[in-house]
Automatic annotation (TrEMBL), chain A:
The keyword Cytoplasm does not apply. It comes from Fictibacillus solisalsi. The chain crosses the membrane at residues 20-41, 61-82, 103-127, 147-168, 180-199, 219-240. This is ABC-2 family transporter protein. Keywords: Membrane, Transmembrane, Transmembrane helix. Signal peptide: none annotated.
TrEMBL record, chain B:
This is ABC-2 type transport system ATP-binding protein. InterPro entries: AAA+_ATPase (IPR003593), ABC_transporter-like_ATP-bd (IPR003439), ABC_Transporter_VariousFunc (IPR051782), P-loop_NTPase (IPR027417). GO terms for molecular function: ATP binding; ATP hydrolysis activity. The keyword Cell cycle does not apply. It comes from Fictibacillus solisalsi. Residues 4-229 form the ABC transporter domain. Keywords: ATP-binding, Nucleotide-binding, Transport. Pfam families: ABC_tran.
Length: 248, 299
């Protein structure tokens, strides 16, 4: 019987196609989380008001930030989930090696991030409609975006979500290598926040981390910053996973 | 050409050795049975061959390559066991179609004919199947993939007797149509004996013997008769197994090799009876921990 030669990229594509079918639950959870996040957003993110003798006004600020934040959490969890044994062993039932498996996972998570990023935009508009139709609001003032701003907004959402998949993937992989990371990672995270809070009067860690990406004014630089971080996190995950056996 | 080569391979889990200093080769287009007791290291050996597990020391080549995490090896071998996991969201039909995309030699017609024969439901999920049905489905994938190296680890676990028989028959027929290297682990030697060409017997993670089935049938001989005559004979031969039959009689299994063979012929003069030893009995005797068998526990 002759031997078959296969290319890694070919197998990555086949695994990716398999994953689009078999990880369908990921997209079901996306819909549920977005509906939940719309409900939570109906509270508004801020409000102000005032009154005088003759009139009174109320201003509510609604934003889609909460929807995006929920999607980041979702992205983190989905990425962690697909590093678990149940998902990794599925790959080993067919032709694969770890490299092909990782790249097909990354490709899948990137696709999921794109879908999530676009639907965040749609959800935001659904949410605005819900607000204006059902919330007894007299006047709605929403920002109008140029097509370029819109594209940039969606791209930014996709990149943020993709960044969180890489964070989740690394977390998941570390836990697969050593179970004690389940306790160590949250402890490190919370410990760092506490130390940060004790060292200075004002906690800075999360804020400066957030503003490193969030306050970047140049779109191109932002794209580079997020993609480089994402790439680095995935790179570390792949290196870390060499310590796990394929299927013990 | 040797498809598989193990040289001094050991695998440690913690402090215990699952496989130690194992060396053997598998020639192209042969069916080999991997026989051993529970915990002998069969699964570990096969997982190393499939490239799932890395040996602690020693060297393994499959198609002249290191199989661990190797995509080329993965494309040319298939590993079938009861732990095979498939997405719970795909139906059996979708799984067969998916398997067809991955394996270059996939025989779709055979897969569907077997699928119908064993009356599996194409709309069912793998997770909903009973243990025996899972094994049946996995076996169909293993056969239809037509991989140059096909590895079955306890493929019949959970199958009923009729399905087991059908499986062995299907394996043999498909092997004749598409010769390839097949290794099959089992502890039911009597069932697969007729199917196999070679037997690789391992015990406590070490190779005990690797012989053709014909050679194994003549490997040992059973002697029964007067206990004292047998004990005397046993001093010249390697004794594999002995059993007290009561009233001064005993049964012993001795190796028949070289000059010893002629000596055994003389036993007839001593009034001892010689009987052939079935392959499965032999495998059981040589891997037995104590010479007296389970009886020794109760004596």
């Amino acid at each position: 019987m002759y031997l078959t030669e296969v290319s890694t990229w070919d197998m990555v594509k086949k695994l990716y196609r398999y994953k689009l079918n078999s990880y369908f639950g990921v997209f079901t959870s996306l819909v549920i989380i977005q509906i939940l996040s719309i409900l939570f957003s109906l509270n508004g993110t801020g409000s102000s008001g005032g009154s005088s003798d003759t009139f009174e006004y109320n201003m509510n600020i609604y934003s889609g930030t909460l929807i995006l934040a929920f999607m980041m959490g979702w992205a983190f969890l989905v990425a962690t989930l697909i590093t678990t044994k149940a998902y990794r062993y599925d790959d080993s039932s067919f032709v694969s090696n770890r490299t092909a498996s990782h790249f097909s996972n990354i490709l899948f998570l990137f696709s999921a991030s794109i879908i999530a990023g676009i639907t965040v935009y749609f959800s935001y508009h659904l949410f605005l409609s819900v607000v204006s139709l059902f919330m007894k609001v007299r006047v709605v003032q929403a920002d109008t975006l140029t097509p370029i701003q819109l594209a940039q907004g969606i791209t930014a959402s996709v990149l943020y979500i993709f960044l969180f998949t890489s964070l989740g993937y690394l977390t998941g992989m570390l836990v697969q290598v050593q179970k004690f990371f389940v306790f160590v990672l949250p402890a490190l995270f919370i410990g760092a926040l506490i130390i940060d809070g004790n060292l200075s009067d004002e906690p800075r860690l999360l804020i400066s981390l957030g503003s490193f990406y969030g306050l970047e004014t140049s779109f191109i630089v932002f794209v580079f910053k997020t993609l480089l971080t994402t790439g680095a996190l995935y790179g570390v995950s792949i290196l870390v996973s060499r310590r796990v056996e394929v299927r013990p | 050409m040797n498809v598989v080569e193990f040289t001094n391979v050991s695998k440690k889990y913690g402090k215990s050795n699952a496989v130690s200093k194992l060396s053997f080769t598998l020639a192209e287009n042969k069916i080999t049975g991997l026989i051993g007791r529970n915990g002998a290291g069969k699964t570990t050996l096969l997982k190393m061959m499939a490239g799932y597990v890395k040996p602690s020391s020693g060297n393994i080549t499959v198609f002249s390559k290191d199989p661990f995490d190797n995509l080329q090896v993965s494309a040319n071998r298939i590993f079938i066991d009861h732990q095979m996991s498939f997405s719970p969201l795909l139906t059996l039909k979708e799984l067969l179609i998916t398997a067809g995309r991955f394996y270059a030699n996939w025989d779709s017609e055979l897969a569907w004919r077997l699928f119908d024969y064993f009356s599996l439901n194409p709309d069912q999920n793998h997770a909903q199947l009973s243990k025996g049905m899972k094994s049946t489905f996995n076996m169909i994938i293993g056969l239809a993939a037509h991989c140059p190296l096909t590895i079955f680890d306890e493929p019949t676990s959970g199958m009923d007797a009729a399905v087991r028989k059908d499986f062995y028959r299907a394996l043999l027929k498909d092997y004749l149509n598409h010769p390839r290297t097949i290794i099959l682990s089992s502890h039911l030697v009597s069932e697969i004996e007729d199917l196999l060409e070679d037997i690789l017997l391992i015990n406590d993670g070490e190779k005990y013997l690797h012989l053709s089935v014909e050679e194994l049938r003549e490997y040992a001989v059973g002697v029964s008769g007067n206990a004292s005559a047998i004990k005397e004979l046993a001093q010249q031969h390697s004794l594999i197994h002995q059993k007290d039959m009561g009233s001064g009689r005993m049964y012993a299994v001795m190796k028949t090799e070289g000059a010893a063979k002629q000596a055994l012929d003389q036993t007839r003069k001593l009034g001892l009876e010689l009987t052939p030893v079935a392959v499965d009995d032999l495998c059981m005797h040589v891997t037995s921990k104590s010479q007296g068998g389970i009886d020794s526990v109760f004596n």
